[in-house]
Amino acid sequence: MVKARKYVVKRQYKGVPKKDDFEIVEYELPPLKDNEILTKTEWISVDPFQRTNGHLIEVPFDQFGYQVGLVIQSKNLKYPRGTRIVSMAGWCDYTILNPNAPAEKHHKYYDTTFYKLPDLQGLSVSHGVGAVGMPGASAYFGFLEECKPQAGETVVVTGAAGAVGSIVGQIAKIKGCKVIGFAGSDEKVKWLETELGFDKAINYKTADVYKALKEAAPEGVDCYFDNVGGELSSAIISQMRLNGRVTVCGSISAYNEDGLFDYSTLPKATVLTPFVLANQLRIKGFVCASRPLSRWPEAFEDITKWIKSGQLKAEETVTEGFDNLYDAFVGMLAGKNFGKAVVKV
């Protein structure tokens, strides 16, 4: 018997998730059945969507999320010992998976993802839940296929120092665009400009956002990749050019609101209709699950190549220890991470 631990959400979040909203439960795993595998978790991802979906699932529930696990026992010939698996097994240190079973639905947008870790060509295994995982695929498809950037265009990214935004900005540079990023500290602004090569970065907490963007992009914005929402997005969308394209990939400014999907309780922002109409803007919501898993390797191949060549930096903020998952989670929600927030189990 293998003793495992998992995080169970026992109470719906009210505002910022609290430590006592979770319970770490210890339990024994049964012997493997035919076709099953036992994985030992190596890396766990903390992501903003784990906060939003907490509104939509009845408690108690096992905290879902991406992880990389190493197969340590197997009754499935396609997944021998030593194979690494990326799955939505969540915040647990051991798990039994059946690759032959149909995917469970945690939420209408998120299947139980399961695939072998891509060939990382010597890169850290942690990238399997970061740049060469769901966040990287989100940046790649959400930007390239929804915004359809052209060389010479001006691209704005909010949440630019985060897991997805930092990759979007660098892909935009690779594609020959001018890139402006918004982040929440002077340290992140400096990092975006000096380390990641953004043409301009702006601290939205201290700057006059509308004026600063006007100075940085006097002729307007062609593509906007939105991870934040709120009034910041209103200020940016009001400065879009004719036929501008917007990908809405996140709305982290509202994630800690109690009524996240209740119109009557959400914060209000400036009306955008005049700008959308006059400039014939295309605004599209994007979730990575809109692209089938069979296509994700397209993104992984290019991103791995760019990292290996030095064109893209896949920064990570690493927290050590299974018991520190909560701290990593709320730290990420508070914007303490540079790049991808990951936990080494």
From TrEMBL:
Q: Which CDD domains does the protein's record reference?
A: leukotriene_B4_DH_like
Q: Does the keyword rRNA processing apply?
A: no
Name the domain of life. Eukaryota
Which keywords, in A-to-Z order, does the entry hold?
Answer: Acetylation, Cytoplasm, Fatty acid metabolism, Hydroxylation, Lipid metabolism, NADP, Oxidoreductase, Phosphoprotein, Prostaglandin metabolism
Q: Where in the cell is it found?
A: Cytoplasm
Task: Identify one Pfam family in the record.
Answer: ADH_N_2
The main enzyme category here is: oxidoreductase
What are the Enoyl reductase (ER) domain coordinates in residue numbering?
19-343
EC number, UniProt record: 1.3.1.48, 1.3.1.74
SMART domains hit by this protein: PKS_ER
Fetch the Gene3D superfamilies from UniProt. Answer: Medium-chain alcohol dehydrogenases, catalytic domain, NAD(P)-binding Rossmann-like Domain
Chief localization: cytoplasm
Catalytic activity as recorded in UniProt: 13,14-dihydro-15-oxo-prostaglandin E1 + NADP(+) = 15-oxoprostaglandin E1 + NADPH + H(+); 13,14-dihydro-15-oxo-prostaglandin F1alpha + NADP(+) = 15-oxoprostaglandin F1alpha + NADPH + H(+); pentan-2-one + NADP(+) = (E)-pent-3-en-2-one + NADPH + H(+); hexanal + NADP(+) = (E)-hex-2-enal + NADPH + H(+)
Q: Which SUPFAM superfamilies match?
A: GroES-like (SSF50129), NAD(P)-binding Rossmann-fold domains (SSF51735)
Please give the subunit comment from the record.
Answer: Monomer or homodimer.
Tell me which family the UniProt entry assigns to this protein. Belongs to the NADP-dependent oxidoreductase L4BD family.
Q: What is this protein called?
A: Prostaglandin reductase 1
Organism classification:
Eukaryota, Metazoa, Ecdysozoa, Arthropoda, Hexapoda
